Write a sequence for this structure.
C-alpha cells in the first residue's frame, strides 16, 4: 500500500465506480459474523471430547490458509510463478527458532524477526529475477528452495541441528494456562495472525497495487503501456506475500516447538499447491476454501497414507488442465444464482466488457 | 597431493558438466521448441532409471538390454503426459499456467508412485561400462567417460537433427511461428508430441546413465532437474549451444568450489554465480530474444 500516494491521483481522476468494479463490497455482517464465529468456536468445541483436537486442526488450518493465501497473492493475482513459498516459510521458522533457541530470546520477541527476514530473503530473490520473464522466476525460486534445503541440512550446527532441523525451540509461554486452555489461547493467537493476513491481502488485492498486478497478469504489454511499473508492483507483492509466509513459519515453529528439515519435502509443496488449485486460482476465497478442504480430507483419509501424495498430484494436474478455475467460482456461481441478491443491471453491463476477470 | 586435487576438480567438472548438459538438453529443447517449461523432467528421469533398474533387478537381464527399455519407457511416459495434460491446453489462454501446475503435480505423483512400487531405499543401477583407471590418484571411471561421450554425441545429434532433417525443420518452424507453420501444413500438435517424446527419451537416457553416480530413490530426479534448470538459465533459455557451454562452465565451477571450499558451498556458489549472471546478462550466455529460438 506504499504505492498508493503514487497511484492515487490517477485513481481519483478516473473515479472508480465501486458498483461497476469487478468486485462487490463485502457486507459488514459477513465479516463480523465470521469474526464472532471464530471467537466463539473454541469455547463451543471445548465442551466436546474431541474438541481440543478440532481446535488444533483449526490452528493448522489458519496457518496453512495464511501461507496458501500469500502464495495465491503472487501466483494467482500477480502471475509470479514462485516456488519459493516453502523456503520462505522455512526462513521465517528458522529465524525465530534460532533466535529463541540459541540466543534465548522470548518467542514473542523472536517471532517479530521471522517475517522481516523472510521479506529480506524475498527481496534478494526478487531483485535479480522479477525484472525478467516469468520462467526465470520459476527456475530461480526452485533453485532457492533447493539451496535452502541443502543449507538447512548441511549448514552450521546451530541451524541444521545435525541434519534434522531445530528440535527444541521454546514454545509460546501462555501465562500458566495448560491443556485445553493453552490450546485455546494459541488458537486466538493463530486466528489473530490469520485475520490480519486475510485483511491485508484483501486490502492489497483491492488497492491500486492489486489492480495493477492483475492487469499485468492479464495483459502485460497493455498494463506497461498504461504506465504501470512492472518490476515495482511485482517486488512489492512478492515482499508482502513473503512477510506473511514468514510469519506463519515463525508461529508454527514456536507452536510445534521445532521445525524439521522435512518441511522442504515435495509433499509440502503439493499440499499448498493443491489448496490453491482446488480452491480456485486467483480468487480471494479460493485458497482459504482449499486449505479447509485439503486439511479436512487429510484427516478424513488418514488411512490412505502414502497414496495421498500420488492422488493429490494427479488431482492438481487434472484440475489445472481441465478445470483451471477451481471450486470457489463454481460455488459462488451457485450462490449468486439461487441465494444471492438480484444483480444490478448497470453492474452486469460493465461486467460483460471486463476481460479476464475470471 | 596438490596435483590430485586439481585432477579431481577438472575430472569432476567435466563429468558434472556433461551430466548437466545431458539433463539440460531435453529441457531446453522443449522450452525452445514449444514453450513448455517441463517441471516433470526430473520425474521422467526417474521413470527411465526405475524401468532400467526393474529390468536388471527383477528380470535379471544385462544393463545393455535395460538401457533401451529405460529410454523407451521414459519416452512413452512423456508422450502419455503430452496426450493427457499438454495437448488439451495447446493454444489456449492459460497454457503456461496449466502446464506448469500440471507438470509439478505429475512429478510429485511419480515420486509418490515410485515410493509405493519400489521403496525409499537407494537402488543401484549397474553401470554400462565397469572398471576405472587411476590418473594421479583420481579414479576415472569408464562409465564417466561414457557419459561424457554420450552427452557430446547427443548434442551433436540433436543439432544435426534440428538443422538437416524435415522433422527438425518443422520443429524449428513451430518454435518460430506457430500460425505460419500450421499454414505451411506442418502438424503443430504432432510436432509438440515429437519434441516432448524426444525430450523424454533424453531424460530417460540421462536417468539410466547417471543413476550409477547418483543412486536412485524416489526423489533423486529433483536435484538433477534443478541443476539442469540452472544450466538452462545460465546458457540462455531455449539455446542448445548455451546449454552445452553453460553445462561445462557450471560443472567446472561447482567442482572447483567443492574441491577447494567444501561440498556445502557448491550450491550457494552456483546460486551466487547465476544471480550475478542474471544481473550482467539477463538473457544468459547465449541469450536469444523472443523471436528466434533453437
Amino acid at each position: 500500500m506504499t504505492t498508493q500516494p503514487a497511484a492515487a491521483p490517477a485513481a481519483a481522476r478516473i473515479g472508480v465506480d465501486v458498483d461497476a468494479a469487478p468486485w462487490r463490497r463485502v457486507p459488514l455482517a459477513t465479516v463480523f459474523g465470521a469474526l464472532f464465529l471464530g471467537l466463539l468456536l473454541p469455547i463451543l468445541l471445548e465442551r466436546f471430547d474431541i474438541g481440543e483436537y478440532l481446535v488444533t486442526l483449526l490452528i493448522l488450518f489458519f496457518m496453512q490458509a495464511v501461507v496458501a493465501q500469500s502464495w495465491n497473492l503472487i501466483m494467482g493475482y500477480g502471475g509470479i510463478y514462485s516456488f519459493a513459498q516453502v523456503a520462505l516459510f522455512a526462513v521465517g521458522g528458522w529465524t525465530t527458532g534460532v533466535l529463541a533457541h540459541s540466543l534465548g530470546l522470548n518467542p514473542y520477541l523472536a517471532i517479530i524477526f521471522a517475517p522481516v527476514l523472510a521479506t529480506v530473503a524475498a527481496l534478494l530473490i526478487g531483485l535479480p529475477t522479477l525484472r525478467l520473464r516469468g520462467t526465470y522466476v520459476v527456475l530461480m525460486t526452485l533453485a532457492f528452495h533447493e539451496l535452502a534445503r541443502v543449507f538447512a541440512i548441511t549448514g552450521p550446527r546451530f541451524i541444521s541441528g545435525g541434519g534434522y532441523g531445530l528440535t527444541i525451540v521454546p514454545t509460546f509461554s501462555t501465562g500458566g494456562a495448560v491443556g485445553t486452555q493453552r490450546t485455546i489461547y494459541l488458537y486466538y493467537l493463530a486466528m489473530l495472525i490469520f485475520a490480519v493476513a486475510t485483511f491485508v491481502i484483501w486490502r492489497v488485492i483491492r488497492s491500486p497495487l492489486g489492480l495493477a498486478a492483475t492487469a499485468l497478469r492479464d495483459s502485460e504489454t497493455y498494463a506497461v503501456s498504461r504506465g504501470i511499473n512492472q518490476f515495482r508492483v511485482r517486488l512489492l507483492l512478492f515482499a508482502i506475500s513473503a512477510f506473511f509466509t514468514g510469519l506463519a513459519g515463525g508461529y508454527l515453529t514456536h507452536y510445534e516447538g521445532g521445525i524439521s528439515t522435512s518441511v522442504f519435502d515435495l509433499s509440502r509443496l503439493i499440499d499448498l499447491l493443491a489448496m490453491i488449485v482446488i480452491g480456485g486460482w486467483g480468487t480471494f476465497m479460493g485458497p482459504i476454501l482449499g486449505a479447509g478442504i485439503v486439511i479436512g480430507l487429510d484427516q478424513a483419509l488418514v488411512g490412505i497414507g502414502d497414496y495421498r501424495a500420488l492422488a493429490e498430484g494427479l488431482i492438481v494436474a487434472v484440475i489445472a488442465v481441465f478445470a483451471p478455475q477451481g471450486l470457489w467460482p463454481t460455488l459462488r456461481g451457485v450462490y449468486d444464482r439461487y441465494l444471492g441478491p438480484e444483480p444490478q443491471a448497470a453492474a452486469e453491463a460493465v461486467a460483460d466488457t471486463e476481460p479476464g476477470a475470471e | 597431493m596438490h596435483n590430485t586435487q586439481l585432477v579431481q576438480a577438472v575430472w569432476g567438472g567435466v563429468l558434472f558438466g556433461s551430466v548437466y548438459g545431458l539433463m539440460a538438453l531435453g529441457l531446453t529443447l522443449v522450452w525452445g521448441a514449444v514453450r513448455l517449461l517441463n517441471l516433470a523432467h526430473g520425474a521422467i528421469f526417474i521413470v527411465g532409471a526405475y524401468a532400467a533398474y526393474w529390468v536388471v533387478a527383477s528380470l535379471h537381464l544385462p544393463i545393455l538390454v535395460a538401457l533401451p527399455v529405460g529410454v523407451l519407457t521414459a519416452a512413452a511416459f512423456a508422450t502419455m503426459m503430452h496426450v493427457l495434460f499438454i495437448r488439451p491446453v495447446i493454444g489456449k489462454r492459460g497454457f503456461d499456467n496449466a502446464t506448469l501446475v500440471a507438470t509439478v503435480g505429475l512429478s510429485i505423483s511419480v515420486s509418490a508412485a515410485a515410493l509405493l512400487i519400489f521403496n525409499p531405499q537407494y537402488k543401484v543401477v549397474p553401470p554400462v561400462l565397469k572398471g576405472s583407471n587411476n590418473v594421479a590418484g583420481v579414479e576415472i571411471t569408464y562409465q564417466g567417460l561414457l557419459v561424457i561421450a554420450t552427452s557430446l554425441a547427443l548434442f551433436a545429434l540433436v543439432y544435426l537433427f534440428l538443422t538437416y532433417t524435415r522433422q527438425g525443420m518443422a520443429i524449428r518452424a513451430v518454435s518460430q511461428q506457430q500460425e505460419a507453420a500450421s499454414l505451411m501444413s506442418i502438424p503443430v500438435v504432432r510436432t509438440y508430441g515429437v519434441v516432448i517424446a524426444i525430450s523424454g527419451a533424453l531424460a530417460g537416457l540421462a536417468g539410466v546413465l547417471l543413476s550409477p553416480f547418483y543412486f536412485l530413490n524416489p526423489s533423486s530426479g529433483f536435484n538433477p532437474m534443478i541443476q539442469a534448470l540452472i544450466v538452462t538459465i545460465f546458457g540462455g533459455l531455449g539455446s542448445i549451444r548455451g546449454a552445452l557451454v553453460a553445462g561445462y562452465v557450471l560443472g567446472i565451477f561447482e567442482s572447483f568450489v567443492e574441491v577447494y571450499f567444501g561440498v556445502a558451498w557448491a550450491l550457494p556458489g552456483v546460486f551466487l554465480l547465476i544471480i550475478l549472471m542474471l544481473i550482467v546478462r539477463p538473457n544468459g550466455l547465449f541469450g536469444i530474444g523472443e523471436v528466434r529460438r533453437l
Q: What stands out?
A: The longest helix of chain A spans residues 179-206. Chain A has one domain: 4-273.
